[in-house]
Design goal:
The chain is mainly α. Helix content is 74%, strand content 0%. The longest helix has 30 residues. It is globular. It starts with 8 loop residues before the first helix and ends in a 35-residue tail after the last helix.
Length: 433
């Protein structure tokens, strides 16, 4: 049971001076590699969409629906799993989820038709929703309190790093050895990481938490309005992004006239800027989450408009992709910080809900993109995605948001003095021994 007694000066001094050990950072690294593998597994069809569709005998729009299946399953899995974990060791749950992910990738590699592909992507979605849903909640428990925000950025950086190395590397492997080989490699990587999740992190039992102000007799309390605003913004923004980005390869090939090698290069540019955006947005959102998310929304909308208007010119296509990567690379971590700042007393629950909405938006975006491409073509799809990105900016601008970090606070979402807004004592991270 978590104590609500005021922390002593010694407690606060320990929290401020505690250092994260190499073993603890290694655990964060394994977690980050896991989110990297999860998101690469989900997004790889973007990089191999054309050969994948040809291999399965379906259109590119139909093949793009495979992302919808993964996103829908992950959307249900992420918010539900934390409710049933009880006292289970979170590292064991994460390892088991990585094995499920490995099975989904293996089935994808052996799929001979669209039906089996969808079944494989359903299995993959179960593993993805569990890993991604727990990663941001687990990361702060692996390090000293003063490094909690950085640990979340590193854990979520796997999402951006998947674009930097995962999707482009998968595209290269797919072009050289076939798209099935790329999914086979991901399956093997997931098995290795499952072993790492068991061996490297410390035991991670259910985290203690204190009832929030306004909680009922069962310890439940309504989520703040800022959570709802953030979820609406993220839903619109991620839907807009994936509706357009799922078909970025055909856009660059048909509109920009690029060869496969040129597409792979621009995907690498996208990923590099995305990784930079992840850490930049993490640092900015730690103090001003609403402003950071709004800037990112405007950046995504502007990048899509630039690609539509000037994407046929190589330098402008590259600029649009770089801006797109920089802006979208920060969405996951900035949105995560928005959520945990708005409800610091419900981290596992709000993280699972956030990831569920995020992955549902991925599915919705992929479905809407496929529908628009089949019905109207790529250019109308891009215009619609840009309009939705700007709509998300408007919602975030006028709806309630989390408060900026108060002066003297030590980390995102936590006031100085080691005491959370709802009165919960700061939890000392699990030992790395």
């Amino acid at each position: 049971m978590t104590s609500t007694a005021p922390p002593s000066a010694a407690d606060n001094d320990t929290a401020r001076t505690a250092r994260t050990t190499l073993r603890q950072w290694s655990a964060v690294a394994v977690l980050s590699l896991s989110t990297f593998t999860v998101v690469t597994s989900e997004m790889l069809p973007v990089g191999v969409l054309t050969p994948m569709a040809e291999g399965l005998g379906v259109s590119s729009g139909t093949a793009g629906f495979s992302l919808t299946a993964t996103g829908l399953v992950a959307a249900v899995t992420a918010p539900v799993v934390p409710r049933f974990l009880g006292a289970l060791d979170r590292r064991t749950v994460l390892a088991a989820a990585m094995l499920v992910l490995a099975a989904g990738n293996a089935l994808t590699a052996f799929a001979q038709g669209f039906a089996l592909l969808i079944a494989a992507r359903v299995v993959l979605g179960l593993g993805m929703g569990t890993v991604w849903g727990l990663a941001a909640a687990v990361a702060p428990r692996l390090v000293a309190p003063r490094n909690a925000a950085l640990a979340v950025s590193f854990a979520v950086s796997g999402v951006a790093a998947a674009s930097v190395a995962g999707v482009p590397l998968g595209t290269v492997i797919g072009d050289a050895f076939g798209w099935r080989a790329a999914f086979g490699a991901l399956s093997a990587a997931a098995v290795v990481l499952a072993a790492g999740l068991v061996a490297v992190p410390p035991r991670l039992p259910r985290p203690a938490s204190a009832p929030a102000a306004g909680a009922d007799a069962g310890g439940r309390s309504p989520l703040p309005p800022a959570v709802a605003t953030g979820l609406i913004v993220v839903t619109a923004l991620v839907t807009a992004h994936f509706a357009a980005y799922t078909y970025v390869r055909p856009v660059l090939e048909e509109h920009g006239g690029l060869a496969p090698s040129g597409v792979a290069f621009l995907l690498l540019v996208y990923g590099l800027f995305g990784l930079a955006g992840n850490f930049a947005a993490g640092a900015l959102a730690a103090r001003r989450p609403r402003a950071t998310v709004l800037v990112l929304a405007g950046g995504i909308g502007a990048a899509i408009v630039l690609l539509v208007l000037l994407g046929s010119v190589g330098v402008f296509a590259g600029a649009a992709i770089a801006l797109w990567g920089l802006a979208y690379g920060g969405v996951s971590v900035a949105g995560q910080i928005w959520m945990t700042r708005a409800a610091p007393h419900r981290v596992e629950q709000v993280t699972g809900l956030y990831v569920g909405v995020f992955t549902a938006a991925i599915a919705l975006g992929a479905f809407a993109g496929g529908t628009a491409v089949e019905a109207a073509g790529i250019m109308p799809l891009l215009w619609g995605a840009a309009a939705l990105a700007f709509a998300s900016l408007a919602v975030g601008l006028f709806g309630p948001g989390p408060a900026p970090l108060r002066e003297g606070s030590e980390e995102a979402g936590e006031p100085a003095g080691g005491r959370r807004r709802d009165g919960e004592r700061r939890e000392v991270p699990a030992s790395a021994e």
